[in-house]
């Protein structure tokens, strides 16, 4: 990537500051991601009564984020299959109409 395609973004996660390099224009998305991670860490700490060490909290947060991503991928795949089926149905109807004029 050339330097004009890169953006530096400062984020903070659980009190730790990071400077990330990301594709230009994606900085806001990384800042939002950091806010989401911070919120999830706080939620998990509250849920566990703040009894677990940070590495375990982070592992649980990562598992939850990964689970959410997998579920969204499954939902997307299901919608994609449904859309393809609908397109095939429309194409078959158009073909049938064309056959009527042949």
Total E-strand runs: 2
Instruction: Write out the strand line-up for the largest beta sheet, numbering strands in chain order.
Output: 1-2
Query: How is the biggest beta sheet arranged?
Result: 2 strands, antiparallel
The residue-averaged pLDDT reads: 93
User: Gyration radius, to the nearest Å?
Assistant: 23 Å
Question: How many helical elements?
Answer: 2
**N-to-C order of helices and strands:** EEHH
Helix proportion range: 55-70%
Describe the structure in your own words.
The chain is of the alpha+beta class. The protein is built from two helices and two strands, in the order ββαα. The mean pLDDT is 93.
How do you describe this structure in short?
With 102 residues, this protein is of the alpha+beta class. It has one domain (3-100). Helices cover 67% and strands 16% of the residues.
């Amino acid at each position: 990537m050339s330097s004009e395609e890169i953006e530096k973004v400062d984020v903070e996660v659980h009190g730790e500051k990071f400077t990330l390099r990301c594709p230009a224009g994606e900085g806001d998305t990384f800042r939002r991601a950091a806010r989401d991670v911070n919120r999830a860490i706080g939620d998990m700490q509250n849920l566990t009564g703040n009894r677990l060490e940070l590495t375990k909290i982070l592992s649980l947060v990562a598992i939850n984020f990964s689970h959410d991503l997998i579920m969204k991928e499954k939902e997307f795949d299901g919608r994609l299959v449904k859309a393809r089926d609908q397109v095939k149905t429309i194409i078959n109807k158009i073909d049938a109409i064309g056959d009527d004029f042949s």
